[in-house]
Amino acid sequence: MGPKLLEGIRVLDLSRVLAGPWAGQVLADYGADVIKVERPGAGDDTRGWGPPWWGEGEDRVAAYYLSANRGKRSIAIDIASAEGVALVKQLAREADVLLENYKVGQLAKYGLDYAALSRENPKLVYCSVTGYGQDGPYAAAAGYDFAIQATGGLMSVTGEKDGTPGSEPQKVGVAVADLFTGMYAASAILAALIERGRTGQGRHIDAALLDTQVAMLANQASNYLVGGKTPKRMGNAHVNIVPYQVFATKDGHLVVAVGNDGQFARFCALAGDAGLAQDPRYATNEGRVERRGELVPAIAAWMLERTTAEWTALFEPNAVPCAPILELPGVFEHPQVVHRGMQIEAANGTPMVASPMRFDGQRALADLPPPQLDEHGDALRAALARDGGWPSR
């Protein structure tokens, strides 16, 4: 097991689906003790988001759920009941962190909102994850990653450009608005815990998917705000760099990611046309971006002369950034991915992707597999009844 940097930190995870659970899993991998509260009978929605499934019969669980819930203990609690509310409050009194992604105002009905719980536990760092935030005209709206990618502008710059086959706005292949919100939430929680060490006071963190998505527009947003032009879909091309896109090869495709003028000079020399990089029209990235329409077709013609493997063998040793486009089997067979140990097995044999973070050479990794629904419920309820405080692991 990896280093336990957050050992002693107690996290009460009332969230479900992806953004909140992802934040909780990050904290668990860093050593926090995470108790996941789930609905009796059904649990987290993603338990049923299969196939594929892991396990058999009543014990089977969707692979989707497994991706975001490593390192947690599960207890089923009906928060609509007085008994359930009492249990959550009992846990919250000694928690350091509470994660939730209920609709705005919903937990206040049960006295489980930040205002109520912080009176009993002033040190509580309470993180609310919603689609649109705790205030504003859309605060009450349900927020789903797909809708947020659309509203937040990501789909407007993702997909083939207008006029090409298959040209329509596209979502990213994984739920990036959820995932980035989970990561932002985790970093905000850690910042609030550091501050609490100085002040003794917790915080209410308002983590909104739409806010995160807008922030994630990064250079595209900056290009618009500074340049005043609305960015359009460009397929796999880069709005600010040329050549930086996918090219067809003799037998497939290759990503070419030339990021500076020196790389472009090497790229041209290796391809057999060193003079192109010396042409004043193309010698600088600014010139290449301005003349994208005439330069890219010339490069595309070169790239058809060799196979993907031949180009890779030529470019990689000479510091020209490039990469074949791998499907998932190839990803997990890639020698660097294998060397770094990114495919792991939980203690119960569940195949998983490891945390990407290492500390002094050790990978951060929670020691519990994703739990079955209410797997730890009986033990947790008994400990709460017996001891009254946060149940030890």
From TrEMBL:
Pfam families: CoA_transf_3. GO terms for molecular function: transferase activity. The keyword Nuclease does not apply. Coiled coil: none annotated. It comes from the Bacteria. Keywords: Transferase. The keyword Transferase applies. InterPro entries: CoA-transferase_III_domain, CoA-Trfase_fam_III, CoA-Trfase_III_dom3_sf, CoA-Trfase_III_dom_1_sf. This is CoA transferase. It comes from Pseudaquabacterium terrae.
